[in-house]
## 1
Amino acid sequence: MPKAAVTLDRDNVIGATDRRLFGAFIEHLGRCIYGGIFEPGHPEADARGFRKDVLAMVRELAPTIMRYPGGNFVSGYNWEDGVGPVEQRPRRLDLAWMSTEPNTFGTNEFVDWCRAAGIEPMLAVNLGTRGGDAARNLVEYCNHPGGTALSDLRRKHGFEQPHDIRFWCLGNEMDGWWQMETKTAAEYGRIAAEAAKMMKWIDPSIELAACGSSGRTMPTFGTWEDVVLDHTFDHVEYISLHTYLNNYADDAAAFLASPDLMDDFIEEVVAIADAVAARRRSDKRIMLSFDEWNVWYRTRRSREGRVKPGWPVAPEILEEPYTMLDALTFGGACISLLNHADRIKAACLAQLVNAIAPIMTATGGPAWRQTIFHPFADFSRLGRGQVLRAVVDCPTYAASYFDPRGTVDAHYPLPAVPYLKLSAVHDDKAAILTLFLLNRHLTEPMTVGLTARGFAGFRLVQAHQLCDADLDAINSREKPDRIQPRSLGGVAVRDTGLDATLAPASWNVIRLQGS
Ligand code: AHR
């Protein structure tokens, strides 16, 4: 049985988790919005068409900030189409997902929905087919109090008070060939800087994220961040990162190791951002917005998974069924985000409902939680506080991870993957230390011994696990709770530590109270 020794020190802190680390994303994509959060006529819909059953599950999942309206969709979006009287809004072809966009849900409905869910709205502007002019107009429409054509238009549309949107994304994945009006780094950098300048002239209090490359495997990765930040450094607070982990190779061990590549990716982007700062002799630190992350592969590269013929409204696309194994890799990604709390100040699970999502709905029918719902709810609800720098001493294994977006060598060697992936978060006020533990050993349980320096008088508050003998098990409409957290027994708590045994291939959360 592998043994892990974990040592941490109350004063050895990586950083405090920002509230925005626990965000998610809703895009005009498939049934994410239409038939997901918004389904007028559904028995659970309120007067605005918001599904109350979905809202209740969203509150349970507890995302803190919500990115909207895309994603690929935003690169062809005219925000003006989605405001004003619904019956006058145009239907348009959406070239991102080859569907018809009815525009019955737009910016104001989004803000209303966020307020109902208790979530901060995050808006992305179209820097594909549009540019700085449309972006600054949207800031004026949303955030200017009144007395101008656009702010008064918002008031005429029923929103007397400004929406006060604080966090804005300058486009989406602008290096991707699949994007409408994709750009070179220099083209995008200039447009983003000019848009940012005007947006902040209208509202200097907003915060802006420039697009990083759409993935670490993009041929332009690295150079893209460098050039884009050279242009935008003085105008933005964040650079974005996107990652979708996959199991195309059907190699569970490599899949479980893949969140470690997120760690490398994050550290590389930090290094590039800081190199740009160094060249400018600047002490400004660009923070990271990991504004798309998830597990996604079954519906990613198949045409049937991504597109339905005939320009349908809200087609069933990207409806990825998540397995027990997916939930474990997903939990590993949560740990990677927590362990970089010093530089990742916003992150968005992509996405929220139906399209690569923790929540599924049947049109006209019920909603249920996918397997990945549970690690995200743990991460968001229990991951607030100071992340401590833990030293993990445990056996390792070798893996090779395949990522098909790569152009040169799509196989990433991972020579020494620790079987235990862990994050420790200390909530000083509540005096609670929360441990998130992923046992990546597929067949053997693991004993974990913790020594926590600077703590005393520990008592167990909560311990639960997510695991199943069948790593292919999923939750479905018929069996919505096939995979759900269960209590974790046998945790022996000492004054300043604990001993526990983790099941093979398991996600575990242990909470200790102590002074
Ligand atoms: O989240 C699905 C899509 O993945 C987004 O629209 C895009 O930004 C990314 O490629």
Note: Residues 27, 70-72, 172-173, 214, 292, 350-351 surround alpha-L-arabinofuranose (CB under 6 Å).
## 2
Amino acid sequence: MPIEDCRIIELPKIEDPRGNLTFIEGGRHIPFNIGRVYYLYDVPGGSERGAHGHRALQQVIIALSGSFEVTLDDGQAKRSFTMNRAYCGLYVPPMLWREIRNFSSGAVCMVLASDHYDEQDYFRDYQVFLASTQRP
Ligand code: TYD
């Protein structure tokens, strides 16, 4: 089940009294080649993002600032993660429905993705996603 493959990746953290520093190197810290980076910000209180699945895209989700909750669902089981550390990434393999909610004020959600944006890779309808997860 894809849900068993999602995990928190701890990124390097260089602690410094002047402020901490985290870095991500391609081919080293992330289990795929980074093809795209995008981020959610200025999220109004109570707003929810996500509510879709991906056929092939892999992602790592990082709370660069503030906090939010990610719920992953493979059609049989769900797992929720509170993201609130800029040095922790949530690895999201393909074929998981994801919902992101409870954004704190000022939260920034950065997503590293394995490929360019492609609407054909999305499941936008939960019932269609569920049907595609059923084994014969
Ligand atoms: P979407 O992935 O549906 O965001 P969410 O599920 O969080 O609401 O994307 C919202 C819109 O932004 C949609 O019209 C597609 C567009 N978009 C891009 O053009 N490029 C991207 O890399 C992403 C992630 C979205």
Note: The longest strand covers residues 59-65.
